[in-house]
Q: What sequence folds into this?
């Protein structure tokens, strides 16, 4: 790692970690090194350690140093998507006959990877409600190698106690992976709470502008980092330099954006609570949320994701989603613009008929950073 950035505050790290002015030109912004290969001074004579861009590229290195610093980890690897990062993490940490514990409402793509891909290679899994630590502990088997946790969860914003799960993992001799996509390193630091690995879909808040797909794995364990790096180079699931640049550019404002996402989410929660057409609001910042105390302990604020149930069931919920004007109907989350979606029909359609099925009256909001009054007004007119 080029700099010891641990003495800096979060926003300083977001802007400077891994991002010193270019020594040759003084370019303040890390250049987009759009090159596949690097000239060598004689066979094996690498000028600055770079050889071929699948293995390493300077724009990507800058992003990785920034991500490691933001998560308080020693190492980071950037990937072409969040799923590419999940694939490398799971394959590096499991062998045929091994067992993975997965949160019951884990990201659908992660569930699909275990259920439809890794299962064919002999990796077993159990899904459990990780909000209940005793249930998680009871699911541990002799062959459990990984506990895979998301907190807050999608779309019902359930909360898992990272420090408690880290203890379960340690006793089990397993690794705890935390998918920190929803919370971001600004709001939550899983490595500091005992997690072994943090995963990100940088597509979401880290990139923050809905213009790039990417992923990352951050760890302080040098052996895990080496195994992840070996597998990523072997399979080649790397982001291009332009994607790395966009993600790095977005990450510079993560702290500012997360404050505003959280402010706006709080305003919206306030407006939804007590509305005659809203039967339930899911937000970990609410005192009566079952995970509120744990969330308050391990998160700086409660973030920009809000879900709620609409009176009148699915038809009424779909009508609200069709009537918003500022909230764009769409999948994904974490961008500066506000999005609305119906998980049952959209992001979580594949869970229909399974125990993971999302109630059909639920709408999920990714609250953006627009003017809060405009956002509240849009929702109120859509609710009618
Ligand atoms: C989007 C998402 C992923 C997958 O990331 P991609 O970049 O879409 O591959 C994984 N976990 C969570 C929580 C996500 O929201």
A:
């Amino acid at each position: 790692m080029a700099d010891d950035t641990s003495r800096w505050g979060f926003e300083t790290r977001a802007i400077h970690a891994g991002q010193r002015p270019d020594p040759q030109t003084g370019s303040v912004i890390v250049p987009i090194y759009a090159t596949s290969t690097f000239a060598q001074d004689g066979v094996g004579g690498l000028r600055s350690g770079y050889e071929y861009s699948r293995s390493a590229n300077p724009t990507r290195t800058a992003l990785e140093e920034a991500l490691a610093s933001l998560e308080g980890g020693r190492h980071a690897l950037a990937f072409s998507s969040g799923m590419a990062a999940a694939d490398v993490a799971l394959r590096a940490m499991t062998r045929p006959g091994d067992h993975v514990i997965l949160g019951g409402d884990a990201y659908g793509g992660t569930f699909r990877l275990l259920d439809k891909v890794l299962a064919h290679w002999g990796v077993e899994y159990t899904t459990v409600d990780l909000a209940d630590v005793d249930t998680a502990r009871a699911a541990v088997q002799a062959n459990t190698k990984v506990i895979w946790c998301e907190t807050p969860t999608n779309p019902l914003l359930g909360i898992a106690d990272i420090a408690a799960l880290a203890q379960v993992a340690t006793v089990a001799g397993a690794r705890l992976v935390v998918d920190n996509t929803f919370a971001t390193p600004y709001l939550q630091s899983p490595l500091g709470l005992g997690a072994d690995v943090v995963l990100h879909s940088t597509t979401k808040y880290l990139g923050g502008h809905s213009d790039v797909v990417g992923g990352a794995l951050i760890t302080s364990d040098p052996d895990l980092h080496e195994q992840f790096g070996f597998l990523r180079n072997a399979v080649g699931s790397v982001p291009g330099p332009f994607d790395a640049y966009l993600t790095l550019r977005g990450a510079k404002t993560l702290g500012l954006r997360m404050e505003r996402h959280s402010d706006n989410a709080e305003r919206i929660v306030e407006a939804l609570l007590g509305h005659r057409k809203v039967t339930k609001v899911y937000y970990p910042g609410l005192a009566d949320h079952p995970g509120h105390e744990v969330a308050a302990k391990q998160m700086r604020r409660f973030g920009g994701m809000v879900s709620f149930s609409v009176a009148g069931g699915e038809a009424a919920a779909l009508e609200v989603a069709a009537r918003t004007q500022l909230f764009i109907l769409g999948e994904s989350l974490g961008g500066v613009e506000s999005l609305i979606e119906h998980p049952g029909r959209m992001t979580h359609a594949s869970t229909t008929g399974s125990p993971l099925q999302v109630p059909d009256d639920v709408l999920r909001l990714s609250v953006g950073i627009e003017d809060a009054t405009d956002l509240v007004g849009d929702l109120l007119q859509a609710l009618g």
Summary: The chain has a mean pLDDT of 96. The two ends are 54 Å apart (CA to CA). The pocket of pyridoxal-5'-phosphate is lined by residues 81-83, 107, 109, 150, 154, 179, 181-182, 201, 203-204, 213, 215 (CB under 6 Å). The chain has two domains: 10-251, 255-383.
